[in-house]
Amino acid sequence: MSERINVEVSYALPHRQELIRVSLAAGATVSEAIAASGLLAKYPEIDPGGANKLGIYAKLTKPDAVLRDRDRVEIYRPLIADPKAVRKKRADEGKVMKKGGGGADEG
Amino acid sequence: MLTALLIMAGIAVVLGAALGYASIRFKVEGDPLVEKIDAILPQTQCGQCGYPGCKPYAQAVANGEADINQCPPGGEEGIRKLADLLGREFKPLSEEHGVEKPKSVAFIDEQTCIGCTLCIQACPVDAIVGAAKQMHTVVEPLCTGCELCVAPCPVDCITMEPVAETVETWKWKYPVVEIRKAS
User: Fold this and answer.
1) Which of B132, B140, B152 shows the shortest C-beta gap to A105?
2) Cβ of B126 under 8 Å from any chain A Cβ?
3) CA nearest A9: which of A64, A80, A67, A79?
4) Annotation-wise, does B157 bind a ligand?
5) Hey, what domains does chain A have and what are their CATH numbers?
6) ipTM > 0.90?
7) Which of A92-95's residues contact partners 24+ apart within 8 Å by CB, and which partners?
8) Measuring CA to CA, which residue among B31, B115, B98 is closest to residue A58?
9) Is-contact B163 B169, C-beta < 8 A?
10) Beta-bridge partners for A8
11) Mean pLDDT to the nearest integer, A82-92
12) Which CATH superfamily is domain B32-97 in?
């Protein structure tokens, strides 16, 4: 008997967010979860591994990463703004950056 | 004499066994009062009451450590329900803990988001989808409107948008009956 794991797959647009529950066999990967969610058919613009990076709970992962029970697979969209340009604009306007924007966008 | 002793001892054994069985059979997990208070609280996990979340506040109320009027998102309606449950007097919302606002959800301005993940770390309910250098988006059905993500944003791209009252979000108002003085 193979164990099942329940995961969520999310693809978020500004005013429409998809959060789809899928039940998979234990040991399933990120790309299998996305295939099972049916989001690729609903949103043809999704390009996994290309423009759209993938992750689990705010951490970027590879498409072949193995899922654990109750994970949330997230399909990301690229940024519109250039972080450097936004920071420069705020500096020019005399606004202070709080906390320096964290380590995540520095490296 | 011996018969009386035996009868008393027999009764003691029977009642003891009944009590022992009942304590196992009807065992209550956790404090039911805390659960009831927690069910009334809005589950925003915003921390405005001074406790790290709704459950710790519920525990504090049940223990008598916190007052019932420290929850701004719950508003007057929440205080009335807590007063009813605990058999206490209604009192207005404590001002030091904040003011009641219409239910809102966070919205991220995509033109300025730099993908720094600070709002994701602040969100108590995992309502923001995003990762480092990727677009962050608020998942509206999960957002509780706690505003904890607004302050950490280094580029001020998060705003709170009030939720329009729809068939799904409309709730019964607490009936307020004004008592007229008999002349």
Assistant:
1) B132
2) yes
3) A67
4) no
5) 4-75 (3.10.20.30)
6) no
7) none
8) B115
9) yes
10) A21, A72
11) 86
12) Electron transport complex subunit B, putative Fe-S cluster (1.10.15.40)
Q: Is there a binding annotation on residue B119? A: yes
The residue among A85 and B7 whose pLDDT is bigger is B7
Closest CB to A105 among B115, B120, B152:
B115
Name residue B128's beta-bridge partners.
B138
Q: Is the pLDDT of residue A101 over 60?
A: no
Residue A107 pLDDT exceeds 70:
no
Confirm or reject contact between A76 and chain B (CB < 8 A). Answer: yes
CB contact under 8 A, B118 and A102: yes
Which residue, among B117, B148, B159, has the nearest Cα to B45 in the 3D structure?
B148
pLDDT-derived band of residue A71, with 50, 70 and 90 as boundaries?
very high
Q: In the structure encoding, which two tokens stand for residue B56, read together? A: 């710790």
Confidence of residue B135 (pLDDT cuts 50, 70, 90): very high
* Tokens standing for residue B137: 């988006």
From the options 3.30.70.20, 3.40.190.10, 3.40.50.300, 3.30.450.90, give the CATH code of B104-162.
Answer: 3.30.70.20
Quick: pLDDT tens for B27-47. 877 778 999 999 999 999 999
Parallel, antiparallel or unpaired: strands A59-60 and A16-25: unpaired
Does A74 touch chain B if contact means CB atoms closer than 8 Å?
yes
Asked if A83 lies within 8 A of B114 by C-beta distance, the reply is yes
Q: What is the CA radius of gyration of chain B?
A: 25
Q: Which residue has the tokens 């302050």?
A: B151
